[in-house]
Write a structure and sequence with these properties.
alpha/beta; Rossmann fold; six-stranded parallel sheet; 46% helix; globular; four-way junction helicase activity; nucleotide-binding; DNA-binding
Length: 716
């Protein structure tokens, strides 16, 4: 009998559930509604996918992004789970066919765009299904307090009520404040839900806030150090996205762009290029990323400060979904405050502005705290017991030096006041440095007592102090195109001498804490990545759907050279083992032989005729099926196509049958001439290692042919 544990291993390749997963699954299987708040990368999808395989009926998954449903369905299909999707990209006839197939039991999971719920025709169709569960992904979209409110999400409860019998409703989100959680329960009409919050902490993420003098230069330097890695660069405006993407491409860092102003066809192509690893860097506004299932994103750089902690953590959380170490870098400047204030003023309802301005203030505080960045985020989301130091953020990994800048601040504030609070940073800095410009003379600012009183400071230093004073709310920037500096009540206290000002700088910053990282063989990792890319192209899916980077790195650390040892690697399930396993074990075995890497004695190398070899493996059902098709007259490629396997896998099936005494025709593998050449090469090179034999033969002769000859000679 299938259990959640056995299904986890069979389809997903893991021996143990992550924290919170089993609890959620058990409550769902008991027929209870669920509200699960779990960080990105914690495995929310497994919490509804496993129950869907055990329920009698179909599971409907409400997912917000049409463009990503295909990838999610492809990933399930590669794992051996029958799934489909319904959204506006399908014709009405195709939508009908999907739902009809679901009614007939062909699909266990159907992904649905929330907008479909608003049509009477769709409601009528879905009413015919035996729906066991409705899983709501990105459930915070139902709340106006959430950072991604979608009105169509409010129709979910109506749809559920129209079904012949009420299914289990399970809501999932990565970021939700207590207020948003209350909204989710109320608006989805959850019935006494089992509520689980596993915590917002993601230990594999490294957080850092930087205040570079030139953000573009800082970004180019960062990308240079992280070449070959996949990452997202977020910017606040479309104009910044376009110019930044152009600059990156011109500097040798291939990048794609994404924002709402780009034609839909180009957006779709750019997103595919990123997901399929054709480009490593995506430059985007916050229109990009929700529901992105790409597991190998290594970094997110925020070129501009987001409007809220919720938005920041949601966007930053798109890295490291495979559990590998990843970095979240935020570039901050005072001008980000001006941009965000403008966006709030012009984009929000009057009733929302006060809330959004408060969220912006919290975001500014995050950018300027000298305390643990992770702790700040966790406490914002209500985790009051968060550790004071995480030792894995820019602040914890730095020595902070405090400098008293009260006198400098008073000079700047006095100058702003004497200039009538009508000018921006550049003009104020010019007066303080004693600039001899026509505008300064015409305005008679060269006669002010503050003229030239900071001439020993560079313009950059004065700008940096002004940015700090804005961030700490001593000064305020008002206006959009030409922002001017204003004094706040806090500044008056400083001018009167009632308050001191100190600026804190991080000294000797360290990189991301790599403790606990898998120490993988990087050369082998690249070999396996190339195999994965080829398979992904053949299968028409993103590379990470074949195996995640984390799974490849585990392979590169453990060197599994047969199926038994490969199946022990996290992320390798039985379906993928059958489809792809032999290609990876062969590559690892050849690499280990070539580089004289010792392999544990209890692992079979799988070369027929080798001393102390294991007894022939049992012929399992999958090998018997390949052998049955062979007996019916099909060739290796035909069997592979019919079964959805790689030809190499079918070769290994038939060789396994041969080792167990079942006759296999030599013509499937070799010609008479090739068999003669292989036999001669074996005499010269010995039979303990495949690599030397392969190198002694023409390139057209495959490893499968060599194995056949070795296996045949052993039987004889």
């Amino acid at each position: 009998m299938d259990t959640p544990q056995s299904l986890l291993k069979r389809y997903f390749g893991y021996d143990a559930f992550r924290p919170g997963q089993r609890e959620v699954i058990d409550h769902i299987l008991n027929g209870e509604d669920v509200l699960a708040v779990m960080p990105t990368g914690a495995g929310k999808s497994v919490c509804y996918q496993i129950p869907s395989l055990l329920f009698q009926g179909v599971t409907i998954v409400i997912s917000p992004l049409i463009s990503l449903m295909k990838d999610q369905v492809d990933a399930l299909s590669q794992a051996g789970i029958h799934a489909a999707y319904v959204n506006s990209s399908l014709s009405p006839d195709r939508q009908d066919a999907v739902l009809e197939n679901a009614e007939n039991g062909k699909y266990k999971i159907v992904y649905v765009a929330p907008e479909r719920l608003e049509t009477d025709a769709f409601r009528a169709l879905i009413g015919k299904l035996d729906v066991s569960m409705v899983a709501v992904d990105e459930a915070h979209c139902v709340s106006q307090w959430g950072h991604d409110f979608r009105p169509s999400y409010t129709k979910i409860a109506e749809m559920t009520a129209l079904l012949p019998s009420r299914p289990v409703v399970a809501a999932f989100t990565a970021t939700a404040t207590p207020h948003v959680r209350e909204d989710i329960t109320r608006l989805l009409k959850l019935r006494r839900p089992f509520a689980l919050t596993t915590g917002f902490n993601r230990e594999n993420l490294y957080f850092e806030v930087e205040k570079p003098r030139n953000k573009t230069d800082a970004l180019l330097e960062y990308l240079e150090k992280n070449q070959g890695k996949s990452g997202i660069v977020y910017a606040s405006t479309r104009k910044t996205v376009d110019s930044l993407c152009q600059r990156l491409n011109g500097s040798g860092h291939p990048a794609a762009r994404y924002h709402a102003g780009i034609p839909e066809a180009e957006r779709a192509k750019n997103q595919d290029d990123f997901i399929y690893d054709r480009v490593n860097v995506m430059v985007a506004t916050n229109a990009f990323g929700m529901g992105i299932d790409k597991s190998n994103i290594s970094f997110v750089v925020h070129y501009n400060m987001p409007q809220s902690i919720e938005s920041y953590y949601q966007e930053a959380g798109r890295v490291g979904r495979d559990g590998g170490k990843a970095e979240c870098i935020l570039y901050y400047s005072a001008s980000d405050i001006v941009t965000n204030k403008f966006l709030i003023e012009n984009g929000a309802n009057d009733s929302d502005k006060a809330v959004n301005f408060q969220k912006l203030n919290d975001m500014v505080d995050y950018c300027n705290t000298d305390k643990c960045l992770r702790s700040y985020i966790l406490k914002y989301f209500g985790e009051q017991n968060a550790k004071e130091r995480c030792e894995n953020c820019g602040n914890c990994n730095s020595r902070v030096e405090s400098t008293d800048i009260t006198v400098e601040s008073q000079k700047i504030m006095s100058c702003i006041a004497r200039m009538g609070e009508r000018f921006g940073t550049g003009m104020v800095a010019g007066v303080l440095r004693g600039g001899n410009t026509r505008k300064i003379r015409e305005m008679a600012f060269d006669r002010l007592s503050t003229f030239g009183i900071m001439k020993e400071y560079s313009a950059e230093t004065i700008r940096e102090i002004i940015s700090f004073l804005v961030a700490d709310r001593y000064l305020e920037l008002r206006g959009d195109q030409y922002p001017v500096l204003k004094l706040t009540p806090c500044a008056r206290d400083v001018l009167r001498g009632g308050k001191t000002v100190s600026i804190k700088r991080a000294i000797r910053k360290q990189g991301a804490n790599q403790s606990g990282a898998v120490h993988a063989d990087e050369k082998l990792f690249e070999i396996l990545r190339r195999i994965r890319s080829r398979l992904a192209q053949e299968e028409g899916v993103p590379p990470f759907v074949i195996f995640s980077d984390a799974t490849l790195r585990e392979m590169c650390a453990a060197y599994p050279i047969d199926r038994e040892s490969l199946l022990r690697i996290p992320g390798v399930g039985r379906v993928k083992l059958e489809k792809f396993g032999d290609l990876f074990t062969e590559a690892i075995r050849n690499y280990a032989e070539e580089n004289k890497i010792p392999i544990p004695q209890d692992i079979s190398v799988g070369i027929p005729g080798k001393k102390d070899r294991k007894a022939p493996e049992a012929v399992g059902d999958t090998k018997k099926e390949s052998y049955r098709l062979y007996q019916s007259g099909l060739g290796i490629d035909e069997i592979a196509k019919k079964r959805g396997l790689a030809p190499n896998t079918v070769e290994n099936h038939l060789l396994g049958c041969l080792r167990n005494g079942m006759p296999v025709d030599a013509g499937l593998f070799v010609t008479e001439e090739e068999e003669r050449l292989i036999a001669e090469a074996v005499k010269r090179c010995g039979r303990d290692r495949l690599k030397p034999i392969k190198e002694a033969l023409p390139e057209t002769i495959s490893y499968g042919a060599i194995r056949y000859v070795l296996c045949k000679s052993t039987r004889e």
